[in-house]
Amino acid sequence: MKEKKVKRSFSLIIVVVISLMSFSKVFSADIWTECGQKIKKIQQSKDNRVVAVVNGEKIYKKDLEIVYALEQASYLSQKESYQKLSKKYKTNSLKPPVQRTKKEVLNDMIEHFLLLQAAKKEGYFISEKEAKDYYEKAMKTMQEIISGKVSGDVEGIKLANDTIEKLIKGWGITRKEYDKKAIEQTRSMLSIQKLLNAKFEEFRLKSKNLVIEDFRKEYINSLKKKAKVTIYEKSI
After folding, report:
1. Which pLDDT value is given to residue 215?
2. Distance (Å, rounded) from C-alpha 39 to C-alpha 33?
3. Choice among 76-85, 190-199, 203-212 with the minimum mean pLDDT
4. Which domain holds residue 124?
5. Which label site among 61, 79, 159, 217 has the fewest CB atoms less than 10 Å from its CB?
6. How many domains does the chain have?
7. Which of 84, 86, 106 is nearest to 12 (CA)?
8. Distance from C-alpha of 47 to C-alpha of 61, rounded to nearest angstrom
9. Distance from the Cα of residue 35 to its chain's centroid
């Protein structure tokens, strides 16, 4: 049971870390090293409370605290970048980052669970090999961009990779461990995307003017109406 909970924490972490690659171009090493240390401390705690249950699957308080720690680190990085860029270009036209609440993070986690459950139920859950091939190809492409073999955002990729290295150093895990869990989460992410692509085609046939952002919201709401979701800590 303990191993299962740790695996789930890893999976939720990868969701946030991968998304950081498209965020700020300025990262503070201290922010991510401290975030990794905080994650390690949370995992070592004996708090096994459940904050929510989604169709029988539990979301533990530890999982929520870990994902929220990553959310906070992401916000601080974006804030730092925003302040530096505003000062450098002397402009007020840049949009400042928004600090999300723990309640919003929990809602995202619930939606992720619902989508993954739907993907498994409806036969869109991809194989482990497909996920591994996709991830390894992405990592190879990143290295080729850094080496100059192919064109791309060299600076952005180097910074994203450095961010992950700082995070896992503070966390106390190896890159191999990180990559293994990243492949697991890649499987989840690709499965959800495969589900959404298929469902979008179904919805599109019913509405020619359907916007993809509206569809995702509409589809998740339809899952929520059928789901049994219990939140135990209302004060989050």
Report:
1. 86
2. 10
3. 203-212
4. 2-231
5. 217
6. 1
7. 106
8. 7
9. 15
**Total residue length of the chain:** 236
For the beta carbon of residue 137, count every other beta carbon within 10 angstroms.
10
Q: Do 107 and 68 form a contact (C-beta atoms < 8 A)? A: no
Q: At a CB cut-off of 8 Å and minimum separation 6, what does 133 contact?
A: none
Using the 8-state DSSP alphabet, how is residue 56 labeled?
T
Strands 229-231 and 57-60, how do they pair? unpaired
Q: Which two tokens stand for residue 80?
A: 């730092």
CATH number at residue 203: 1.10.4030
What Cα–Cα distance (Å) separates residue 110 from each residue in 54, 57, 115?
Answer: 7, 10, 9
DSSP 134-169: HHHHHHHHHHHHHHTSS-S-HHHHHHHHHHHHHHHH
Distance between CA atoms of 210 and 25, rounded to whole angstroms?
Answer: 33
Tell me if 49 is assigned to some domain. yes
Asked if residue 146 belongs to a domain, the reply is yes
Q: What is the pTM of this model?
A: 0.83
- Which has the minimum average pLDDT: 9-18, 27-36, 43-52? 9-18
For 118, residues 6+ apart whose C-beta sits below 8 A from its C-beta are: 124, 195, 223
Specify the long-range contacts of residues 101-106, CB closer than 8 Å, at least 24 apart: 102/64, 102/68, 102/236, 103/236, 105/64, 105/67, 105/68, 105/71, 106/51, 106/52, 106/59, 106/64, 106/231, 106/236
